[in-house]
Amino acid sequence: MRKLSALLGLVLVAVLGLAAPASAVTVAKTVSGAGAAGSSASTKTLVLYDYTGEYAWLGEDYGMMATNLVSHFGAWTAHPVGSYTAGELAKYSAVVYVGSTYDEPIPTAFLDDVLATTKPVVWLYDNIWQLTARSSDFATKYGYTWKGFDVSTVAEVDYKGTALTRDTRNLAGIMDYAVYDSAKAVSVADAVRADGTKFPWGIKSGNLTYIGEIPFSYITSNDRYLAFSDLLYDALAPKTAERHRALVRIEDVGPDADPAELRAVADYLSSKKIPFTVAVYSRYRDPKGVNNNGKAEDYTLRQRPLVVSALKYMQSKGGTLLMHGYTHQLDALNNPYDGVSANDFEFFLAHVDANDAVIYDGPVKNDSALNVTARVTASRADWMMAGLTQPTIFEPPHYAASALDYKTVNTLFGTRYDRGLYFPGVLSGTAVDNSVPHMVGQFFPYTVRDVYGSTVIPENIGNIEPEPFNQHPAVLPADLIANAKANLAVRDGVASFFYHPYLGTSYLQQTVDGIQGLGYTFVSAAAMTTVA
Question: Where would one find the signal peptide in this protein (predicted)?
Fold first, then answer.
């Protein structure tokens, strides 16, 4: 059985509220980017993040995650809050400040502009006390003030009638408040303590929305990250109508696939009038003969005409083929399993530790634009010799690649369909830090154009895995349907999952029926990259 092709442990850092040491090591640049396909040409967001001391990398990570999300709405500019200049905010539709470092030095020009502007301001977590101290009448004007961080165990955040999860390993605390005027200061969501009592997870008053924690740590498919993703609509696209679309991707299809399984999946989805995507790697390798009694195997699509015929059949039934790497494995390495295609990573190194957990190790040894381009070129040749139309969408195997790889893929495709890994240095324009402890992963509930410049078609609710492995529990249709239900909290979000054809069609039918029962409409990947 092939291994899970998703990044499930997304952001497992919670180093929040950290004191800033004396100075930053590097000087970050101001970086700008275009909005996602179909976004507003007139909307432009300023993203500011903390960037002093030894945790500058963390501030940049969170800044990247905020930047990726705001790209859904339009163009953006990002830089450290410390380099803000007076009047800068006036050039933008809104500003998002990510306060991750306790007592980060914030220019008074920014504080004064926030207090004076009528444009939407979204402020996350730390240093709200610097804003209130700069105002002589903050409590009167906004109807509340901060009290201090509540470090109670909070496993649930209630947002507009939806109970979203919050990982209890996150011990950083959530800001609590004294509310003086409930007509002005309105809770955007409620944090629920273990004893059932509640307090505001965030407060909106006038043009200022304050979130009492960083919503990017320990994110999963159904947690309070979705509340923040939706709240951005209030600031950047408040007239957006509610709409809920779904996507399905058939995963890990290579020359070794069973044509009958592919045709069965295509027939079912076609019978439901559901468009779908098929993730294809063009060369199958088993260099150690793991699945062939010790005898190595190596063949391409062209050498398996029945598989090619099945792929063309899938296209005729509404399927779109994407490139899912070249071999979906790396040389003869156990990376991390056995070197067999569809099991292993191709553009990143990993191993399985003594606790049966997959551990990311970093970029491959020959990591370069040349390496990525060579593998893509070889795969394109396989597609051509098999008589298949060249794909326009790329998905890195197991959603893992280096910053350089992602940037190279952007030049070759421009569109990915995945969850991404992000590294310090990409947003700040400094030397990229590829160290695994400093990288973060992110999924999206809507289309974005991420910091690598790629349009990213979202996959956000996971996949079916009937058996537990590598410390991951089994995942059944009910779990994906529950994730889809949570994602209804995002007013124009999606429920996007992937599915392995060797599982047959029963689980697929259950999942599709459940998601449609929630009111989602299945669309093609192309629908996520065009103007609505």
Answer: 1-24
